Structures are given as C-alpha cells and as structure tokens.
Amino acid sequence: xxxxxxxxxxxxxxxxxxxxxxxxxxxxxxxxxxxxxxxxxxxxxxxxxxxxxxxxxxxxxxxxxxxxxxxxxxxxxxxxxxxxxxxxxxxxxxxxxxxxxxxxxxxxxxxxxxxxxxxxxxxxxxxxxxxxxxxxxxxxxxxxxxxxxxxxxxxxxxxxxxxxxxxxxxxxxxxxxxxxxxxxxxxxxxxxxxxxxxxxxxxxxxxxxxxxxxxxxxxxxxxxxxxxxxxxxxxxxxxxxxxxxxxxxxxxxxxxxxxxxxxxxxxxxxxxxxxxxxxxxxxxxxxxxxxxxxxxxxxxx
Amino acid sequence: xxxxxxxxxxxxxxxxxxxxxxxxxxxxxxxxxxxxxxxxxxxxxxxxxxxxxxxxxxxxxxxxxxxxxxxxxxxxxxxxxxxxxxxxxxxxxxxxxxxxxxxxxxxxxxxxxxxxxxxxxxxxxxxxxxxxxxxxxxxxxxxxxxxxxxxxxxxxxxxxxxxxxxxxxxxxxxxxxxxxxxxxxxxxxxxxxxxxxxxxxxxxxxxxxxxxxxxxxxxxxxxxxxxxxxxxxxxxxxxxxxxxxxxxxxxxxxxxxxxxxxxxxxxxxxxxxxxxxxxxxxxxxxxxxxxxxxxxxxxxxx
Lengths: 301, 302
Prior knowledge:
The complex is a heterodimer of chains A (about 300) and B (about 300).
Chain A (H helix, E strand, L loop, with lengths): L1 H33 L6 H19 L3 H24 L7 H22 L4 E3 L9 E3 L2 E3 L1 H23 L1 H11 L1 H6 L4 H27 L1 E3 L2 H16 L4 H22 L1 H18 L21
Antiparallel strand pairs in A: 1-4, 2-3
Helix pairs in contact in A: 1-5, 1-8, 1-9, 1-10, 2-3, 2-4, 2-8, 2-9, 3-4, 3-8, 5-6, 5-8, 6-8, 9-10, 10-11
Chain B lengths: L2 H25 L7 H18 L4 H23 L4 H21 L4 E3 L2 E3 L12 H4 L4 H24 L1 H11 L1 H6 L4 H27 L9 H14 L5 H16 L7 H15 L7 H17 L2
Antiparallel strand pairs in B: 1-2
C-alpha cells in the first residue's frame, strides 16, 4: 500500500504547501522590491491573525469578518514595519534595516502576547464538512479550499504583475529601480504598495492555516518566517513563480518526511534540503546565480 | 555580591562570546544567523568531556572550541562562496539542523552511579564541574570574564596586524581586495574558523555555568540577537558587540519598570537608534575620531 501512502502524502503536502507558497510569494515580493530581508514579515502575519482571533473570541465575529480583519490587520502592520524599518534606510544601510526589522519582530511578538496571553487560541473553522473520499484517498475539504484559494491568489498576483500597470511598475522597480525612477515611476510609493500587498497576501496565508487548524498558537510568527524563508529560497529569490513552486515542493517533501521519518526529521528535511541547495545550486529552482553577486537577484518575476 | 547581579553579569559575559563570533564574520562582510550552532557544539562537547570523560575544565573548553572550529570550517567549505543573504540562510539552515539533531542526540552513561549525558530533547543535565570542585558563583563569573578579556585582548592585538586589516578590507569590498592580491576565500575561511572557536569557547563556559543545556537554548532567537548586538554596538571595535549585549541585557534588566513591555520598548528603541546611526553606536567613523582625539591629547603636552 506504499503507493496509496505516497499519493496521500503528496496530496496533503500539496495542500499544506499551498500556504507555504503564499507566504513565500509575500516574502519574495518584498525582497524583490526592497532587496532586503524583512524579518518582521512572519510577525506581521501573526499580528493580523491575532487581531482576527481576538475579534472571534471577543465578539464571535463570523468567519468572513475575521478574514477581513486579518487581511486589514496584516496590511496595516506591514505599513508600520515599512515606515519604521525600510523607508528611512537607503541602499547603504541595508543591514541596518534588516536588524531594525528584527527589532520589530521582537516588538510585535510581545505585543501579540499582550493581546492574547494564552499559548493556544481558538479560530473559526473553514468548514465542518467531512472529508471527501476518492478511492483509498482522503481529501479534507478545508485543505481543498486552502489549495483553491492559493491557486486563485497565485493567478491574481501573476495577472496583476503581468497585465496591470501597477504590476508593470512593480516589475520595473524589481528589475531596475533607478531606471524606473528615471521614467517617472514613483519608486517609494511602489515599494510601499508592494509591501502592503505582500503583507495582505501573508495575512491570507495565515488565515488559511489558522482556519484549517482551527487554532492559533504563539508560534505562528516563527512558523511563517521559517516556512516562508525556506520556500522562497527553494524557489529562487525574487521569483513569484519560484515561490509558488518552492512552497508546494516544500509541502510535499515535508509530508513524506513526516510520514516515513517522524515530525522532527520533517523539519530537518526542510533545512537540510535548503542547505544542500545553497551549497550546490544557490539560485534555487528558478532564480539566477547567487555566487557573490547579490544584484543577480530579482531578474525575473 | 548580590547573587542576582552575578547571574546577570555572567550572562552578559557568555553571550558576549557569541556576539563576538558573529562580529568576526560581520567584519569579513558576511552575515551569519547561525553562530548559535557553534555555541551549542562547544557547550555539548565541553560538557561531555568533563562529565563523561572526566577531563579537566581547561582541556574541555579547548576541545569545545576546537570541535566548533572544525564544524565551522566544514560549513565554510560549503558556503563561503555564497554572498549576502544566501550565506545567511545557509548558516541558519545549518544551525537549525544542528538544533534538531541535538533533539535526537542521546548519549547516556552511568557515572558515579548516576545516569548522565545528553538526552535528546530533555537536554543535558548535571554538568556539575564547578559544583563538584567547589567553585563559587562569583568565581565562575570571574573565570568567564578572565577568558573574555583574554579573547578581547587577542582581538585588539589582531586588529593591529596585517591580517586584521585584510579582514576589514575583505569585508568592505571583496572585489577590490581580490584585485589587490588578497586571497578572499582564505581570509573568509580564517574568519569562519576563528568565529567558530570563539563561539565554541563561550558555549563550553555556558554549559558549565548553567549546569544544564537543552537544544532549545540554541535557537534562531539567540542567533539573530547576537548578530544584532554587533550591528547595534558598532563594528568599529570588538567592544561594539559587547556594548550591544550590555544594552540588551543591561537595559532589559533595568527597564523592569516596563515589565511586560520590555521588547516593545526595546524593539522600538533599536529601530529608532538604527535610523539615527545605521552602522551602530561605535562605528568605524566614531572609533577613528576617538583614536584621533586620543592622539591629539597625547601630543598636546609636547
């Protein structure tokens, strides 16, 4: 029955991986536009999810309202992070903005624990329907919704970037920020919008995961950061398609590793894969070469 | 001396080792999120040496530093060609792999009738060297600082040599350094080995001071914190990361007024500080000015 196990794990992995993919898309958009790592991204999502959870706990808000709050919360906190950590720093102070984002990571995590002091909090469920059975395979309906939502978001983001003027401006800023400024694109404004967009996308990812788990723990910030980072690196920095592929791949690999080797090895597999990839193929699945040329990042979106 | 103060001072001392470790790599132009791995390797190795193999402390500490350095070298071979964020992610990946491996590492033996040794996720208890040899908390604190001062002295001496200047050159502009004939890879590898050794040394001290280490202590948080110390305190001298540690642990303790809001205040303070001084407090410019002022002061009497 190994075939059934493999198939089931692959399906499960794809579905969980879709949330990783969304996280990675957000991360990679920010990195592509900012050329800097935003360590406060995971906590931004945590803040949004916590706000949603608080509204659920305090006012028994319906699930769509919770979703709206999570998205809005993540976007607003993302704006706060952008103003404090990225706007004031120019090209020369890249590491400073990364350290500042780390400082805000600390800040947001503590603020979150003030909002919801308990380690585990309930979250509304996506659906209470029983799982669908296709032959020997079991498909959870909420996982399917998550996968569908991710695909929808991926299509939407790709459409935005490929067909809309805002997307064109974003791609221009990712590719050649100085040239973009010369042709009249308001680079700072695009950076801010991308940041907010990426934070909102992350919020959706956080919402989906929380709604499938029907609970939110204090670890969600760290979770979002690590999974998003690994998925992003797997797919290649600055590449949206790569981020999606990386997220899905990570999900599938983790599912298999957990099934055959246990949950701890599962985490080790993700990191081990990343390490091996970086040692031998630094560019990731779809990125470009990463050997000592940081500017090679962000070539294609 | 008040026991609480001794504990705080000891903590500052030990964390300084990891901060210095990240600092060396920062000087060579690399950001590492993974120095906590070598801290942990040093801790476990030194602990195993004294507890299970009955080694004396000094030898155990040296072994811890050596094993950590070797690990850093192996990792360096795989990663030093990478730049910027790729290197940072690779170091983080290694550190997490090590941490999870420690969760699974069990090596138990019966020593003097008690079963001891690393026990996976439960950690490594009863590293009782100081207790067994009747060294008081104050004395252990002094030992930590003695080693730290020795390491700092080594740093200051190294800064004045050509090797020290090569290191900074490579960090500032690797392409230019390569063009000028400096073997960039060699310098980076030397920096990685030194950084691993310093972190490993600190780890060994940590294990014996705490008498108990667990894999959870060596997580991402430690790594990112210690990286931040150097960047906050300034990369001008080895005192920079120490200042960073003092600000964090010193301020953390002193702002008990903000009980429960420490990180909110501290996080905001750090972000604002960096806006004003992006290269840290004691950055190269500031250090230069201080050195010039001192020189002028010395010649003022002529």
